[in-house]
Design a protein that fits this description.
Elements lengths: L12 H8 L7 H14 L5 E5 L6 H16 L4 E6 L2 H15 L2 H6 L20 E3 L6 E6 L11 E5 L5 H4 L2 H15 L8 E6 L7 H8 L2 E3 L5 H4 L5 E5 L27 H10 L1 H7 L17 E3 L6 E9 L8 E9 L4 E9 L3 H14 L4 E5 L4 H11 L4 E5 L5 H15 E4 L2 H4 L1 H8 L12 H19 L6 E2 L1
Parallel strand pairs: 1-6, 1-8, 2-4, 2-5, 5-6, 7-8, 9-15, 10-13, 12-15, 13-14
Antiparallel strand pairs: 3-4, 10-11, 11-12, 14-16
Helix pairs in contact: 2-3, 3-4, 10-11, 12-13, 14-17
């Protein structure tokens, strides 16, 4: 430990923040964020990664209020703030200094004081470094690739080490950042040093991505995870701007709810996602994917109107398994050249009772004549229910035993060459669009493969099987 705590206070981090920054807006998200930061300040968490969307109060909590709070709890602590530039890091440092010299702070932490004007002599106070009077504590700020020669650090706070997408997309910048982290940050740490990495994600190989690949990391879903973490293990907490993952005790939002709706509501976030799904998944959802690693990207072809010579109307459905899976049902039409035109989609995590009605309605609206349903994960019962509702549709169920990864990868070129989506499909089915255009070649890196699996199934049925003259065996209802 850096020193013995001297300021005797039971003030929580939230109460402290409200006292020194009375203008703060506290939503349920901020309350959770600040509770986690408080656990870090108390030393209950020693290695913490937090991914937060832009303009959600990330730096106010972690890089402005938190250092002031930690120096209040322990005036002997040596804290270093790092960011992509020395100018920005110095800005954080000055904000912390203004908090420490405020009357509100003095009332809470009277033993943590800094130089005012020229007094007392002998103490340092610049925009890059400030010392606690009469104690060992100090706050240092440094830009990425800056020097910390001779400084032992008890706590590092690394906030946005990349200025923008251009920097994050540069392999040279990413490599330099990693070299600086390993040669400067890590060499200034001791056995009990703490690290907080708080970023908006830009790239899958940014510092967070590198740390999660090279060191043990535990995804944080509840406060109980703090007690379960092993020494040397990171706790990782990601806040999605639009809730897409299953609810957790730390983030109990329902699917589609915005993280801070008063600041950025769901409508605004959806509009941002439509503009650039790949970047949205990285910056706002915390799930980056490099464009060069995408399987499909934005290379899907679009059409304005269906051709006159349609020879078949069919659909392919993969029912949802338990948990985070989507039911994906795609209706399509085929022309005389064998081109496949997507006409409608049901893409949902609702219960089967609900999706049965949606899919049946879609079949009727699109004049579907033939329906393929994978029998895995309850698909057989789903297929029978559809057949009862739509006796004129030939419903076929079959067991999909092929390796999903191999099927999706090997058929990806055929999918892009053969399948067409209606123009504006990103607006009609935004989740489907986002999951397909951000789907990665590295299979285990994908959270959702339902849409890619269905497109693969369509070309297997309509292109691969028909060209070879061998259809997969299907059981007719």
């Amino acid at each position: 430990m850096s020193g013995t705590k001297s300021n005797d206070t039971a003030t929580s981090f939230i109460d402290f923040s409200r006292e020194v920054y009375p203008f703060l807006e506290f939503t349920p998200f901020h309350a959770t964020y600040y509770r986690v930061l408080e656990a870090f300040a108390e030393g209950r968490i020693r290695k913490l990664i937090v991914s937060v969307p832009p303009q959600h109060g990330k730096s106010v909590g972690a890089t402005t209020l938190l250092p002031a709070y930690m120096l209040g709890l322990d005036p002997d602590m040596r804290i270093a703030i790092a960011s992509y530039s020395g100018t920005l890091a110095s800005k954080f440092n000055r904000r912390v200094q203004r908090i420490i010299e405020s009357r509100e702070y003095e009332a809470l932490f009277p033993e943590t004081t800094i130089k005012r004007g020229t007094k007392p002599l002998g103490y340092i106070r610049t925009s890059d470094e400030v010392e606690i009077i009469g104690r060992k504590g100090e706050l240092i700020s440094v830009g990425r690739e800056g020097s910390l020669t001779g400084n032992r650090v008890d706590c590092f706070i690394l906030d946005d080490l990349y200025k923008d997408a251009m920097e994050a997309q540069s392999p040279v910048v990413r490599d330099n950042c990693w070299d600086w982290y390993t040669s400067v940050v890590r060499t200034r740490m001791h056995n009990n040093s703490r690290e907080l990495v708080v970023f908006t994600r830009w790239h899958e190989e940014d510092l967070i991505g590198q740390l999660m690949r090279t060191e043990p990391c535990r995804v944080m879903r509840s406060m109980e995870d703090i007690d379960a973490v092993q020494r040397g293990e990171w706790l990782y907490l990601n806040f999605e701007a639009l809730k897409a993952s299953p609810p957790t005790p730390l983030d109990p939002r329902a699917e589609g709810e915005a993280l801070w709706p008063e600041q950025q509501n769901a409508e605004l976030l959806l509009a941002k996602r439509r503009l650039d799904p790949v970047r949205f998944e990285a910056m706002y959802q915390g799930h980056p994917a490099s464009r060069e690693g995408l399987l499909y990207g934005d290379n899907f072809r679009e059409y304005d109107t269906l051709p006159r010579d349609i020879v078949a109307r069919a659909s392919y459905t993969d029912t949802a398994d338990v948990g985070d899976d989507y039911l994906c049902s795609i209706a399509y039409a085929i022309d005389t050249d064998g081109v496949i035109y997507v006409t409608d989609v049901v893409y949902s995590r609702e219960s089967m009772e609900h999706t049965e009605r949606l899919v049946a309605s879609m079949f009727m609206a699109n004049d579907t004549r033939r329906a393929y349903v994978e029998s895995n994960n309850g698909g057989r019962g789903f297929a029978r229910a559809l057949q009862r509702q739509l006796p004129a549709v030939r419903v076929e169920w079959f067991h999909q035993s092929g390796n999903k990864e191999a099927r999706i990868l090997s058929n990806s070129a055929t999918v892009l060459h053969t399948i067409r989506f209606p123009r504006g499909w990103n607006l009609r089915w935004p989740e489907l669009y986002a999951h397909l255009t951000t789907y990665r070649r590295l299979f285990r890196a994908n959270r959702h493969d339902d849409a890619a699996d269905v497109l693969t199934g369509i070309v297997e049925k309509e292109v691969t099987a028909s060209s070879s003259g061998r259809w997969q065996r299907a059981k007719f209802l």
